[in-house]
Specification:
single chain; 259 residues; alpha/beta; seven-stranded parallel β-sheet; 8 helices; globular
């Protein structure tokens, strides 16, 4: 009997699926939205800057911009309700939005530390909880991709940001715990841990040549990440290509965490 033709690319497709991407108004989030759309998904674009979301939505096929302050639970409800009203389902959540707190730990105000934890850890859990309920109710399971960081795996020190590091370390183990709790519901939860990439969040670092040189000296590959070098990892974790993968942290860091 003739075997069906092998198509190893097919599991990476997201045709007919709906993905929510937070922090979609710029940087990595905007790129993630474009990548998921190119793979066939309908994307819900979430951030505080509605004008930027609307501009991005105009470039994509049937995307839904939703303004949201992630620190407000009622607005998280609006994100999930908006996705369900528009598309009738939620299949993928990319928890990408984040905040930083570059300051020496001995001097950092406690409220700044707390604010970063709220945006980077509490809000992703709250949105994952809401999206997870929708995935369970829909009966098709889903995939949650939490965007962590290499600073959730190792310390750096030379760029002091205790709240950010603590929040991303929390995201790493939150990913494992949610994966363990929700696996039998058909919901896979994994984390993407980028190394140093140019974005709005790292603008202060890469605005000067010294930042580029610092990363080049420290990274085994001798450079920072380039645009597009997270695309494959994101699609892998968001799609059926990783159907037997959950609770894992995929570092895309040029070898930073290997040494």
């Amino acid at each position: 009997m003739t075997q069906p033709a092998l198509d190893p690319i097919a599991p990476f497709r997201l045709d007919g699926r709906v993905a929510i991407v937070t922090g979609a108004s710029s940087g990595l989030g905007a790129r993630f939205a474009r990548v998921l759309t190119a793979a066939g998904a309908k994307v819900v674009l979430v951030a505080r800057r509605l004008d930027r979301l609307e501009a991005l939505a105009g470039e994509l096929d049937d995307a839904l911009p939703v303004r949201c302050d992630l620190s407000k639970p009622e607005e998280l409800d609006d994100v999930v309700a908006g996705a369900l009203d528009r598309y009738g389902r939620i299949d993928v959540l990319v928890n990408n939005a984040g905040a930083v707190d570059v300051a020496p730990a001995l001097e950092e105000p406690l409220e700044k530390f707390t604010d970063v934890i709220a945006v980077n850890l509490v809000a992703p859990f709250a949105l994952a909880q809401r999206a997870g309920r929708a995935m369970v109710d829909g009966g098709n399971g889903g995939a949650i991709v939490n965007v962590a960081s290499i600073l959730g795996i190792v310390g750096v020190g030379q760029i002091p940001q205790a709240g950010y590091a603590a929040s991303k370390g929390g995201i790493v183990n939150l990913t494992r715990e949610l994966a363990a709790q929700w696996a039998r519901e058909g919901i896979r939860v994994n984390a993407l841990a980028p190394g140093w990439f140019e974005s709005e969040m790292t603008e202060h670092m890469f605005s000067e040549e010294s930042g580029h040189k610092w990363v080049a000296r420290r990274a085994p590959m001798g450079r920072h990440g380039r645009e597009g070098e997270l695309d494959g990892a994101l699609l892998f974790l968001a799609s059926d290509a990783s159907s037997y993968v959950t609770g894992q942290v995929l570092a895309v860091d040029g070898g930073w965490t290997s040494v």
